[in-house]
Amino acid sequence: IKVPEDFGIIGFDNIINCLYTNPKLTSIDQPLEEMGKKAVELLIERIKNPDKKIEKVIFDVELIIRDSVK
Fold this sequence. Notes:
By secondary structure, this protein is of the alpha+beta class. 24% of the residues lie in helices and 14% in strands. Strands 1-2-3 form a three-stranded mixed beta sheet, with no helix packed on it. The longest helix is centred in the middle third of the chain and has 17 residues, at 32-48.
């Protein structure tokens, strides 16, 4: 079985190791800093108001295409 000729592989989190695999790993990149800031903000709001309705937050992600997909 050959990558990417027979099938593609996609990782998640776009860690630095994606660049050091052979072939280089395609990955989903997430806005980790923005996600962390929002998590802290929501936690503080929750501490101040325990009855506050749970908020669902969706962040944009980016597909970083490398050699592991065609």
